[in-house]
């Protein structure tokens, strides 16, 4: 690598552009030099001006190339085929009441329990790939084995992506530019195609459609959530997605889950809403900082869920009609009242 | 005693993260104290006090807080040892993007927040570039995409650093960060003779020394002029 010119580096590792840009190194016109020679010819005053330290940069560039190469290689092989949680203890050091919980891609597990009961801790255990070295004493296995250290230490390989109620877009870009930016950071090759795919998926989830030119900050609540979910499903590097409630407005929640599952994500969903909790086939009950139980959703619950869904439909249409200034009539709802 | 140097832009979540980190040390019976460096004003000492943490503060006033840090850190370390601390944490407001307080051989942590915008990693210089660990906060209020873009830019600026997401409110990730900070075997009695990781500019001009009058003839020392392109032909 040391002998390569900047032009050769750019050719072989296109992502090094990002390294030069983020480190404020203007290489334009110097492509025929090696990186070391490029640094050599920089003016000393300019280096001090820009707070650039020469000695470490070649080493950092080598490390960056190594990390990015490993990261890009990761996409093809060494995926996550299962996540296993082994029990630890709750806040009072009482052992957790389950033996082993394994979740596979395209499965949803709900997390229920009072606020502050230990959801963050469970999530942090997964994110950190705990090895009996966190306060809960839980252990995490990936593909039935000890997790690779990269899940802990490497910035681009994070196990968990998060979607929560409070999330907003803060960046001032159009939907299209935003998706391109994310795709670039993921070193995706077919950026246009991916952005198009995400936009289409988001529009299937959102009640009101939006275009590629809409600024992300002016999307409605439902549209924002739809875009975040579609983007996380399709572009996020993380194999596990944690959802912290999806509000029941402006978005089709069942389809939202389907989008994530169709991309082979492992989905954990913290919720207080029975309609969401029962959509999952299993649920983790958290109490006093520990996993109190892992329950399967029963047939009876699935049947109840259907009835609750029709109740929900009634509520939603009543809400809509009232908002539109209409008067409600029993006959319009009669067909729904077969509870 | 162990020493860890925290730095980061204003309001990035330094105090919140340090408080959560200390919470997890308390359970392990590690005695932690904090010294806060700021420029004009800080209330952070009250927050630490309220949490029962021994704390001192230093205000640099007219000086760059990082320069002030360098001239006071030896005394700070003396204080920590005298107070019987196992771990001394310094919190510096990274006001000057040109300087950074990190010392070679002492762990340096940069706290930076997702809300500050995706160009921040590029802007803040040595404070980020020469840190050992970077904790990114406020991930709970931005989209996953922005978290990922932000983290990837952080690692382009500082590929050597370990990058973590820590939430200053819920404390998620703070325990994990704490495990990287304390080493029972390490014992630091003095920082005498240690080196700053990144040289600070001397930056002395006549205005540093109290000059108030505007005009070429009053300017001495290290002055610098903006470049103006000639418009007329
Ligand atoms: N949503 C959210 N808010 C946070 C998080 N971390 C910190 N905050 C909030 O951000 C604000 C600033 O946090 P501080 O911890 O005081 O920041 P600081 O870096 O110590 O600030 P200075 O010392 O004044 O430079 C506070 O209102 C915190 O509650 C986080 O992870 N998420
Ligand atoms: Mg503070
Ligand atoms: Zn300075």
TrEMBL record, chain A:
Can you provide one Gene Ontology molecular function annotated for this UniProt record?
Answer: ATP hydrolysis activity
Pinpoint the ABC transporter domain residues.
Answer: 80-313
Asked whether the keyword S-adenosyl-L-methionine is assigned, the reply is no
List the keywords (alphabetical): ATP-binding, Lipoprotein, Nucleotide-binding, Transport
Q: Which Pfam families match?
A: ABC_tran (PF00005)
InterPro entries hit by this protein: AAA+_ATPase (IPR003593), ABC_transporter-like_ATP-bd (IPR003439), ABC_transporter-like_CS (IPR017871), P-loop_NTPase (IPR027417)
Q: Where does the secretion signal sit in this chain?
A: none
Q: Which Gene3D superfamilies match?
A: P-loop containing nucleotide triphosphate hydrolases (3.40.50.300)
Q: Which domain of life is it from?
A: Bacteria
| Protein family per UniProt | Belongs to the ABC transporter superfamily.
Keyword Disulfide bond among record annotations: no
- Protein name in the entry: ABC-type lipoprotein export system ATPase subunit
Please name the source species: Pectinatus cerevisiiphilus
TrEMBL record, chain B:
Gene Ontology terms: biological process: protein maturation
Entries under Gene3D superfamilies matching the protein: P-loop containing nucleotide triphosphate hydrolases
Residues of the CobW/HypB/UreG nucleotide-binding domain: 4-164
Molecular function, one GO term: nickel cation binding
Q: Where is the signal peptide?
A: none
A Pfam family annotated for this UniProt entry = cobW
- Recorded protein name is Ni2+-binding GTPase involved in maturation of urease and hydrogenase
